């Protein structure tokens, strides 16, 4: 009878969670006023976010231009520079995913078109900071609707060669030869127009403030009693007493555990950072976190960021009694909320339904060959929306960070997940992501596509804990 009841609960939960995607937006209108396209639409009660795309006369396809909150119903596009037809496409992102799109067009005649955009100003390099022994960060004063061409030379008056183009006013120049004596110049590009070159600036010019944050990656915490009861000890599990030793080591070495939210705030110009910060991340949301790790975090007054797999937590919540027969039991949403309320455990995302090693040709939340931002972004948006619905329900918050399943990622997947709503992403121990084991930051550069993806070092059982650190 208990099995039948649990099955019925599982079925009910499944159908309750399969909410339909939002209806397509209504009333999308576009008009030309003072050389700008004024776009408006009807408010939808299903909307958490409105996402707007534009296709200009010279574009072959739509390009993302704007996200707004669920209460905003308009946008002014000042990019209308040339005569021709501009097309706009609007989607609604809600708890059920992403709606069908509504399209509208605006035809601009030559006499009504806005002035042609002006040539960009000659860029100004704010600073060139040696972030770590491998990387220099070049920061440029931003300009509207520009890309930036970064050039480099071995001397101030030498031969400058183009090395990087970015749509963000930052360049992370990484060197495997560990030489940071370069000089840089920058050119701004807007459409077909190019600025002159900036004044040359060498490494160390007006440097920003640099700080480092090591990030540890745990998974499951067990005791011999757990193993005797049938819980599996996989390659990423550690014994609870090992975890306690780790916490003692961190305290003895003067480290302070911080949350992901604290790091985001600090990079956004808020708050203070302790002298030796460290982030403890825990992947998946296994029951051992609730039974073994959480009590130790409270005992030593430390914090951890727990990334949870949405569908696994759903299953455990529907049938918690089944965990006694599982080799890999998971927490329930209620247990996660209890840990979150304590302040010792910050809940972050491990995706809702992307935690499969192989699915649709992809590994986890990474992209596959042939993916583009246009094809992959809706997948990220839908998963983020489903995750956000659970976070609002159980934690009264929205997810701001995600740990990549299996640590698999690409630059394209980074862009898609950051556009979907996350502000910070955790990967694995990938030296091609960041050459240093510790994640170094230039605070003045804040969060951008490069700085928002962090390297983590996996904590393995029976390995010296100090190997996780660059001390």
Description:
There is one protein chain. With 471 residues, the protein is of the alpha/beta class. It has three domains: 17-108, Immunoglobulins (Immunoglobulin-like); 125-202, Immunoglobulin-like (Sandwich), CATH 2.60.40; 210-468, TIM Barrel, CATH 3.20.20.370. The protein has helices at residues 2-17, 224-228, 240-252, 260-267, 287-299, 310-318, 333-342, 373-395, 411-420; strands at residues 29-33, 36-40, 49-55, 63-69, 74-77, 84-94, 97-98, 102-108, 125-130, 135-140, 147-153, 161-166, 170-174, 183-190, 193-194, 201-202, 210-213, 215-218, 220-222, 237-239, 256-257, 277-284, 304-308, 345-349, 401-403, 424-426, 439-442, 453-454, 457-458. Helix 5 links the parallel strand 22 and strand 23. Helix 3 (240-252) runs parallel beside helix 5 and helix 8 (373-395) crosses helix 9 (411-420). The protein is globular. The protein starts with a helix and ends in a 13-residue tail after the last strand.
Please give a quick description of this structure.
The protein is an alpha/beta fold. It contains 9 helices and 29 strands.
Largest sheet: 6 strands, parallel
**Count of discrete domains:** 3
Instruction: Report the total helices.
Output: 9
User: Under CATH, the topology of the largest domain is which?
Assistant: TIM Barrel
Q: Segments where pLDDT lies below 50 for 5+ residues?
A: 1-18
Beta fraction: 25-35%
Task: Give the class from helix and strand content and strand pairing.
Answer: alpha/beta
